[in-house]
Amino acid sequence: MNEISLMSAPAPEATIGTLPSLLGATREELGDALAAIGVPEREIRMRTAQVWHWIYFHGIRSFDTMLNVGKGLRTTLAAHYSLERPQVVSEQVSVDGTRKWLIRLPPVDAQDRGAEVECVYIPESDRGTLCISSQVGCTLTCSFCHTGTQKLVRNLSAREIVSQLVVAREKLGDFPGLVPPKDGLLPTEGNRPITNIVFMGMGEPLYNFDNVRKAVSVLSDGEGLSLSRRRITVSTAGVVPQMEALGREAGSMLAVSLHAVRDDLRDKLVPLNKKYPIKTLLEACRTYPGASNARRITFEYVMLKDINDSPAEARELIRLLKGIPAKINLIPFNPWPGAPYDCSDWDRIERFSDIVFNAGYASPVRTPRGRDILAACGQLKSETEKLRARARLLGED
Ligand code: SAH
């Protein structure tokens, strides 16, 4: 290691505390960051591998801990970069073990006042799923989704997407040397607490495709965070032009928010349907790279009372999905104040599920999780804002 060239690297412009964080960087970006502080070309690969392992496998928070990296480089790294994480502003633990974290992202520029996203952890006996966000807010205005009533603030960067998993693993004590919290349920079957990731938090991932693709490459890197691509699911309301690239370049699993079997109804529920109607959307599913019986596409279908929940619609759904390796995820509607819909009655959901199941599709009904902490689908963020506003009114904040 050439200490001289390291020491003569450009002086950091930012003051301590605002150094750019390397957390969430791709391998390429990390290599560039090392080159920028004078690590010689011939060492970049090896140093990148070392630093990568410390950041993503060990989850370290300080460059001092990188024991196999020379002191000189550690000092230079610390002079130019940080490993700062977004801040967890609040943590709520549901009676069912679901945890919700409100995460404040550091401002990206002078105009940015610092955005917040929510991230939800759902433990089950055989798996633990982390539901992450891809945007702050959403532009889609789906009529049954509360998150959709907020304006988009901005896309999340790949680093901000990745950092949601890092923060969650820290909170769950899931890096070497950390201890799991005692107050929550964690999966029992010998797995790591987080086995699966779903892009089902705030935002439309395929409107932020580049960053989602980059984030998936970091999340799935076997030398680091190590989540299999088969356990990373990107959910879309149907941004057809990006779907092929998602399969080809990210290689993740696909979920599609279908919710209706007729265009007139889907136009109302998911306005994006006017642009990419059901037929076009299903055609893109038929040709989704990598879809097979072992890698099925999930179709999400929210159960809205007297709107889309009839047996005839269940049968039509089966007809539409013919030839697509699919599973169907029925989601009981999670109500929010002022919502123009109700959740279907339970027997209606069961009837729907039976029809789909008897046609040979797995059709689990997604048990609402974390309703008591407003962590269920479509309840994110805006609810927290409401609570805060109420607390302010009551003088509690
Ligand atoms: N924009 C992407 C990612 C969001 S995923 C997409 O639409 O797929 C969030 C999932 O929860 C979607 O299937 C969405 O349709 C569903 N959802 C939103 N609001 C809901 C609510 N109030 N009750 C139940 N499911 C809801």
Q: Could you give the topology of this structure?
A:
Layout: H1 3-7, H2 27-36, H3 41-57, H4 71-80, E1 87-93, E2 99-104, E3 116-123, E4 128-131, E5 135-136, E6 154-155, H5 158-171, E7 196-199, H6 209-219, E8 232-236, H7 240-250, E9 253-257, H8 263-269, H9 278-286, E10 297-303, H10 311-321, E11 326-332, H11 346-358, H12 382-393
Helix pairs in contact: 2-3, 5-6, 6-7, 7-9, 10-11
The structure holds S-adenosyl-L-homocysteine (SAH).
**What are the bound molecules?**
S-adenosyl-L-homocysteine
Low-confidence segments = 1-16, 389-397
Radius of gyration: 22 Å
Structural class: alpha/beta
Please indicate the percent range of residues in DSSP E strands (runs of 2 or more).
5-15%
Order of helices and strands: HHHHEEEEEEHEHEHEHHEHEHH
Number of domains: 2
What's this entry about, in short?
The protein is of the alpha/beta class. 33% of the residues lie in helices and 14% in strands. The protein folds into two domains: 19-80, DNA polymerase, domain 1 (Orthogonal Bundle), CATH 1.10.150.530; 87-393, Aldolase class I (TIM Barrel, Alpha-Beta Barrel).
